Amino acid sequence: MNRKTLMVSGLLVCLLGLGLLSISYASNISNPFIIIKGVLRLEINDTQIEKISDNPLILIGKQSTDIINYMSNLGYIFETQEGSGYFFNKDNETIILTSEQFTKKYITWRLNN
Predict the structure, then answer these.
(1) Which domain holds residue 51?
(2) Taking the model in full, what pTM does it have?
(3) CB 104 within 8 A of CB 51
(4) 75 touches 29 (CB < 8 A)
(5) 29: number of Cβ within 10 Å
(6) CB-count burial class (<10 Å; 0-12, 13-18, 19+) for 54
(7) Contacts with 103 (C-beta within 8 Å, 6 or more apart), sequence order
(8) Among residues 31, 72, 37, which one has the least CA distance to residue 55?
(9) Measuring CA to CA, which of 17, 34, 77, 85 is 20 to 30 A from 69?
């Protein structure tokens, strides 16, 4: 390879690294690949919600109504939304999912313990 090709390759690697760091920083998720994987599954599988982490539970989707439908299918009743918190109830147990806009197109929800 010549010097110009090496410089371009190095620049691309640096830009990719900066992109992954910005995803990690913006989403407060240490592993940006799980978000990328979740977004790809949403788009390829044409699903509404994808689980991207189990501990802590983190879900990704496109619309706030998607999380309400997803939780309803799990037997939870949507109670209210206060700010970024979505309150669900099942068998007198209340759980709160906190939303965070990831990009203009995607939202993540995290289970607060």
Answers:
(1) 3-112
(2) 0.69
(3) no
(4) no
(5) 22
(6) exposed
(7) none
(8) 31
(9) 34
Model confidence pLDDT, tens digit, residues 50-87: 999 888 899 999 999 999 999 999 999 999 999 999 99
Amino acid at 61: G
DSSP string for the chain:
--HHHHHHHHHHHHHHHHHHHHHHHHHT-S-HHHHHHHHHHHHHHT-SEEEEEETTEEEEES-HHHHHHHHHHTTPEEEEEETTEEEEEETTEEEEEEEEE-SSS-EEEEEE-
Question: Is the Cα torsion angle 106, 109, 64, 45 positive or negative in sign?
Answer: positive
The CA distance from 18 to 98, in Å, is 26
15 pLDDT higher than 80: no
Domains: count for the chain? 1
